[in-house]
Every structure is written in structure tokens, then in C-alpha cells.
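chain below, 482 aa
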Amino acid sequence: MPRRHIRVTGAPEAPLRAALAALRTELGVPASFPPAVLAEAERAAVAPALPTYDATDIPFVTVDPPASTDLDQALHLSRQGTGYRVRYAIADVAAFVVPGGPLDAEAHRRVNTLYFPDGKVPLHPPALGEGAASLLPDGPRPAALWTVDLDADGRTLAVDVRRALVRSRAKLDYARVQRQIDDGTAEEPLALLRTVGQLRQRLEADRGGISLDVPEQEITGHDHTYALSFRAPLPAEGWNAQLSLLTGMAAADLMLAHGTGVLRTLPAAPDGAVGRLRRTAHALHIDWPHHVSYAQLIRSLDPHVPRHAAFLQECTTLLRGAGYTVFRDGVLPEITTHAAVATPYTHCTAPLRRLADRYATELCLAAVAGIDPPPWVLAALDTLPGEMADGGRRAGAVERACVDAVEAALLQDRIGEVFDGCVVDLDERHPTVGTVQLESPAVIGRIEAAPDDTTPLPLGERLRVRLTQADPATAKVRFAPA
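prediction:
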């Protein structure tokens, strides 16, 4: 999970643009697609493998950030007896990508879409990822159509997935959806997003699952300076995320029952990591009684409150260690669950942006059909976790470096100022070096004591710190105890 979601509005100033360009080179980020890949994408865009099942009569809509054009999912919700029917269409990337071809090889090289404050480096060429394969409302698209029937409490009753031709009727954004639901103008398929989303959130709480509402950091460039603000997620974003989680859980169950699959797994957090979070909560004046579980505490926090937002950001450290686990021939792995989801789970709803999802979809289609997975899927399974791990490390490096560059741009004119912060991490070998999170602005940076000061930094405690370095060109922000 990223250390922080960031977005830059307006054109970045020259120093930040130069720093971001240098980061792309330093981290080996692909600059462009090879000609053979672009040529295959153009051919596939006009001649995909189309399914025979026609579901274009279902009035799907997409719900995404307003500027998004790589639309992986479209939804339609309806009542089904005393319960509900969730139809979730996922972009069918396999309808465009020939196994072993240039497009496939390039996807395995890139692994996932990388996000920079000033743009993205996509997994697939725009002709597919933002065009023919994206579930845009400009024509029918091939999709993997999930149908999940729920009872009155939101529990899963039946699951089906099949290839289908679908048509999105509208490209909606979260703010518009939230307004329509709140003011009662949303028609039933969309109004049910709140109903189903809240039912699934209650079930998540019952099983001990956790959804972190980490605020998005927004940096606005204006008159050669930057302003920082937080945008807490809207409730509609959480309800929509529950549909993706529902599908990922259904997919994991299908693969486990069929005996071959790829899961997204996360072991339980060690006691030491939870203990460190408790110290951070104390430093941020967040009451965490010992009888209250971590999951209960998370659900009680308000991401609009700065100290809560800071703590939620630090909670993402417990998600480190997530990975992809492959199993086959009925031999199940030692760990089949994802600790934050609190049940078996897989990634399958973002194939335009994440390589593994294409393979999970194929495994689920085979499971429902009662047939063996395609040979090209089985041949790739053993190396897929390693590829995804490498891609995840690169994405993490991009995210960390981008945060450092943007925060350096934000603070470059404030060197020497003193801020209130909290030490949220220490170097195990050098306890006078660590990470500090400011209360305001909400910035994370490295903190180092003076060379002649051997006093360990107070982990999890409030501390006055002085900004000593903020250089967008080197993407470095440094603090020292004040």
C-alpha cells in the first residue's frame, strides 16, 4: 500500500517537474512502448476476441475519479427477492492480449501502472488501457461479468462469472454519486450502492476486517508556491470498494474450491508492530483502551481530523508483507487469508492496471466452467508472484520518491522553521535516526540528531523538530530535533 496518496493540481513548477523526470530515469521507469507493442495494441483495439453472451441490455455505470480513463469496473445493482444482485463487469484484457506476444511480454515487464504526481506510466498502451479495453460509455466492450447474489444481510448466496459483451451507460465520479445518493435523486441501481456497501461494511466489521480510509494528499501549485491539503475519502468510495472486495473474496473462494489459483495473502501483524502503533496513538492523543481491538479503533477514527489522518497513514505499515501466493492441483498453501480482509481474497478487479488480475480472472472463469485453466495461465503461475513482488517494490519506490519530491517542493522556503511532530519509526542500528510525521503540514521526513548527540529519538512521542533540508532536485526532506 502506498505511503501516501498524492495528487498535484495545476502544472508542477519547473524544479518539481525536473525532479520527477529525474526520478523516472533513476528508477528505470519505462519511457515509452516499443513500436511492436504499439502496433499490436492498435490491431487488437479494432479486432478483439468478442464473447457470445450479450449483456448490453444491463445499464452499467462506472464510478471513478473524474479524470480517470482506464476504467476497469462497471456496476449494476438490483433487488433480488429479499436480497440483492450485484453485477460487476471487469475489463477483459485477455480479449486483446495474445499470450506470448509483444503486448503480453511488455505487460510482464511493466507488471503494473505507476503513478506520478504529474501523470502515470500505464501497464498497457493507451489504445487499449484508456480506449478499446476500458469500460468507457462509448460502445460495447468485452468483459468478465461477475454476478453475485446476496441475502438481506449482504451475505453471499451464489456466484457466477462469464465472458460477456457489456455497455456502460455513464461515466460517473464519486462526488456526483455522493451528491445524488445524499439528496435522494439517485435512481435505484445507484442508490443501492449505499445499501449494499453498508451491509458489506457491517459484515467486514463482524469478521474483523479493516478498510483504511487514508486521506489523499493534494498539492496545489500557485504563484510559484505550493499549498497542501487533505481530501478524506467520500463514503461512496468506501461503498464502491466493498464491491471490489466482494468480488475478490468470491474469486478466492472459487479458486480454492477448484484447487488452482493465485491469492493475495497477508499474515497477521506481529505484536511488536501493533505495540509500536499503540505508542504512536498515545503520542497523537488517540485513546486506544487495551480492551479495544485494532479493527475497532480504526473504524472509530475520522480521516478529516489531522491527528487521526496521521495515525491512519501510519497504520499502513501493518499491511507490509502482503504478497501473491500460488497453489495448484488441490495442494493449498499454508496461508490462504489476507489479514486485513480477514478471509481469503485475491486481486481480480483491476486488470488494466495490474498484471495478476488477468490471470486470476482466467482461473475463475475456468473454475465456474469446470474445466482446466488455459495452458498459458498455468505456465505463468510459478513466476507470477516474483514478478508482482518486483513490480510492487518498484511501485513503492516510485511512491516514496514522489512523496519526498512533492513535500520538498512544499517546504523548500521554510528551512529553519520549527514544527510539532511525532517520531513514527527508528533505524534499528542507529536510534538517533528515524522518521518523523508532522502534525501540520502533514509531511513525513527523515530526522537525524546531531552527530554528538547519542540520545535515542523518542519513538511514538511528540517532538519539536527543525527543518534542515528541503530540496526538490534531490527529493530530500530532513529534520533535526529542535
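The chain is about 35% helix and 25% strand. The longest helix spans residues 384-411.
thats it, cya
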